Amino acid sequence: MSYLGFLFANLGRKKVRTWLTFLSIVVCFLLFGLLRTVGGMFSGPVNLAGVDRLVVSPKYSIIDPLPISHMNVLRGLSGVQSAAHADWFGGNYLDFGLAFPTIPVKPREYFNVYSELEITQADLDTFENTRTGAVASRSTAERFGWQIGDTIPIMGNIYPQEDGALLWEFELVGIYDRPNSSGGNFEDFYIHYDYFEEAKQHSKGMIGWISVKVDHPDEAALLASDIDALFENSRNPTRTMTENEYNAQFTKQLGNIGMMINMILTAVFFSILLLVANTMIQSFRERLSDLGVLKALGFNDGWVARMVLYESLLLNVSGAVVGIGLSYLSLIGLEPMLSNFGVVELTSANLIFAMAIAALLGLVVGAIPAIRASSLPIVDVLKARG
Predict the structure, then answer these.
(1) Parallel, antiparallel, or unpaired: how do β-strands 92-93 and 66-67 relate?
(2) CB 327 within 8 A of CB 32
(3) Could you tell me if 143 and 230 are in contact, meaning their C-beta atoms sit under 8 angstroms apart?
(4) Which candidate, 28, 16, 12, 5, places its Cα nearest to that of 362?
(5) Ramachandran region of residue 120, left (φ > 0), alpha (ψ -120 to 50) or beta?
(6) Would the N or C end of the chain have less CB density within 10 A of its end CB?
(7) Tens digit of pLDDT for each residue in 170-195?
(8) Phi and psi dihedrals of 163, rounded to 5?
(9) pTM
(10) How far is CA 354 from CA 184, 357, 367, in A?
(11) 51, exposed or middle or buried, with CB in 10 Å at 0-12, 13-18, 19+?
């Protein structure tokens, strides 16, 4: 029998226990792959914005509105190339009960500030001249099978219409692309601000935030301070920062996701450590006489110790490989739901980290039985066997 075959034979002595332990390790590393990927999306560097843009938002809370009159002040500032306002509409796509970012904008202003968004001039003109018009990203249109001219029903959950109705209907008049986006599938759905302002029941004349395109990116920090100073003593003070900073702080409002994920993983691995260690110790105790016989047959202490240690390594590393493989397949299925937060990718760094943890876990739980096996007195074991 080969050495590897000998290891498998030993692990197969208690098949049910071995399989349950193996599946526990698989689940552990499945969670590792999923949680590390999601945590990296939230806590990693945000790269969804141009370096030449600032975001002017309410000072105290993102749910506070800003008056649209702030736009006139900003346009007159030195260093401001252009500005565009936006708001969060909320709502769910009626047919599917699914949500995607729906944002009221002034079409030409917004696409001027966000020049990386590619839309044909004809679609932009139609959007600007159609009050109930909307444009969708190509990924969103493909996701739902939308075609130009379709009516898109959205059930509002923040803004009712003047008559109290929550159902809004928009005509899809264009599709835009965002090439080279590091954020995965870009799903923003833009509606016409003029129609939104006219039809909504409350918060007239108020907007959510303002995006400002600056002339000189290296002076953005100074310009941000100037903007905030302008509105410091107004009824609606602002907080201005680069778009990268804004996106990073927005995700942090959900909490320190990276820390929470690390705490969960620590608890999971500690539990698995106890479980696998218990399995290996039980297995060792049940095989004391067999190990004594191997020594009596001429197998030295080092060989016996390595055999016990390799069993632990084989069990942990093989479970990690299967678990990481399942997490990779799961992330493919979850990508449409997570892609707005960043790139859904199980990185090579996480793969290496997972294998290192699996190897370390195997060494730790196998160390004590291996040491005991190497120092096992042959005479005492054979006496007990007899």
Answers:
(1) unpaired
(2) yes
(3) no
(4) 28
(5) beta
(6) C
(7) 999 999 998 755 444 567 899 999 99
(8) -90, 5
(9) 0.60
(10) 24, 5, 20
(11) exposed
CA–CA distance, 20 with 1 (Å, rounded to integer): 26
Q: How far is CA 134 from CA 32, 68, 74, 138, 203, in A?
A: 40, 21, 26, 13, 21
Closest Cα partner for 246 from 207, 210, 287? 210
- What are the pLDDT digits (tens) for 217-275? 888 888 889 899 989 988 889 998 888 777 666 655 555 666 777 777 778 777 777 77
How far is it, in rounded angstroms, from Cα 280 to Cα 273?
11
Judging by DSSP bridges, how do beta strands 206-207 and 102-105 pair with one another? unpaired
Residues 346/328, Cβ–Cβ less than 8 Å: yes
Question: Nearest CA to 228 among 54, 50, 46?
Answer: 54
Tokens of 100: 């995607």
Inter-residue contact 344 to 306 (CB < 8 Å): no
